[in-house]
Amino acid sequence: MAYRLPAVPFLRLRFTLAAVHEAVLPSYKGSLLRGAFGHALRRTVCVMGPQQPCPTCMLRQQCAYTRLFETLIEPGAPVPRFLRGLPTAPRPYIFECRDERKHYLAGESLPFDLILLGQAVALHPFAIFAVSQMAEQGLGFKRIPFRLENCAWESKKQTAKSKEQEVDEWRLLYEGTTKRLLETPTPQLANRQTDQPSNGLTLNFLTPTRLKFQNDLAIDFTFRMLVFKMIRRVLELAHFHAPEAKIDWEFHPLLVAADAVQIVQRDLRWVDWERRSNRQKTEMLMGGFVGEMVLAGELAPFMELLRICEVVHVGKGCVFGNGKIFCSDQSPRELPRESPRDQSRGENVEGR
Predict the structure, then answer these.
(1) What would you measure as the largest C-alpha separation in the chain, in angstroms?
(2) At what angle do helices 223-241 and 303-312 cross, to 10 degrees?
(3) Under a CB-based contact definition with an 8 Å cutoff, are residues 10 and 312 in contact?
(4) Residue 41's CB: how many other CB atoms inside 10 A?
(5) Is 320 in contact with 31 (CB distance < 8 Å)?
(6) Could you give the CA distance from residue 236 to residue 89 in angstroms, rounded to a whole number?
(7) Which domains does the chain have, with CATH numbers?
(8) How many whole angstroms separate alpha carbon 253 and alpha carbon 48?
(9) How far apart are alpha carbons 252 and 323 in whole angstroms?
(10) Do strands 180-181 and 282-285 pair parallel, antiparallel, or not at all (unpaired)?
(11) Which of 42, 131, 154, 269 has a CA that sits 20 to 30 A from residue 53's CA?
(12) CA separation (Å) from 186 to 9, 48, 133?
């Protein structure tokens, strides 16, 4: 019997901000957006005040901030042996911003996606309002204000030619001028069914991907090692954020099958970028590898896993947009700019 991965609902929101004044922002904006979003969300929903630590707050289990942004593992909560020792649960959101421009003139748009996972989907009104607030409060070092023009959500619709085939459709969810929601979005399932591939495909790493093995970042790994990281990512999200999902913890046969898949071509290169840690008051390198790998072998057992990870990403720093992958027969035209390096790093500060 083939291994079945748990279903992870998700909602992809696409925001469009407009600069009120000329602004200068970093090339990689995932960390900036995530930090500004978290501050705005807490200011919006917290009734206890900034002096109250979230882990000891009596309202933490009902609070939209802790449920969405800073997910906690409750003391005494049942945690499978496979996941014991985690300090915090994986965050149920991902910021994706492919816009690497630094300079924005007044009126120019800044687009980005926010993916909500599992139970966080129901909190999308809080997320939209927090984005509106973070835009007004300003982005970047000089806190240049933006305004939220609109937010759309990704849905699926059947094609005219076949009721079995679906295509992506973007529907307007929020208007900045009226400040109201226009409809209730329907989440998708990350483990969507796909056509089975031949015995080869190209796996593209679109944003810096950070994979740690034995506590060191690595760029040289086997397909089995990659599959393990992907499975762990999916099962963590399902356990903490999709309570209705059925999780099979016996995935060892899938790892064994991964040994038969070969990486026949590897074109990976390192890209470094920095983020500011407000908690540690320091700059941190958050680079990873980008590029592509050509896989050969029996890939059918892994297509569901690969498709899920196209949505949920893989590796460390997924909340910032790190670890975005895409499976294709051809390479994408655009990849992040190259910044060569010779050896891996071993930082321990990550966004999960």
Answers:
(1) 59
(2) 60
(3) yes
(4) 24
(5) yes
(6) 8
(7) 9-189 (3.30.70.1890), 200-328 (3.30.70.1900)
(8) 48
(9) 23
(10) unpaired
(11) 131
(12) 10, 32, 24
Who wins on pLDDT, 266 or 75? 266
Name the residue with tokens 């922002």: 25
pTM for this one? 0.88
Q: In which residue are the tokens 């005219």 written?
A: 160
Q: What residue has token string 């072998």?
A: 297
Tally the residues of the chain. 352
Note whether 236 and 311 are within 8 A (CB).
Answer: no
- CB proximity list for 259: less than 8 A, separation 6 or greater: 222, 223, 224
Contacts of 143 (CB under 8 A, 6+ apart): 137
SS3 content of the chain, % helix, strand, coil (to 5): 25, 30, 45
Residues 273-302 as b or e (16 or more Cβ within 10 Å = b)? bebeeeeeeeeeebbbbbbbbebbbebebb
User: pLDDT for 171-227, tens place per residue?
Assistant: 999 999 999 999 999 999 876 555 566 688 999 999 999 999 988 898 999 999 999
The number of beta carbons lying within 10 Å of the beta carbon of residue 122 is 15
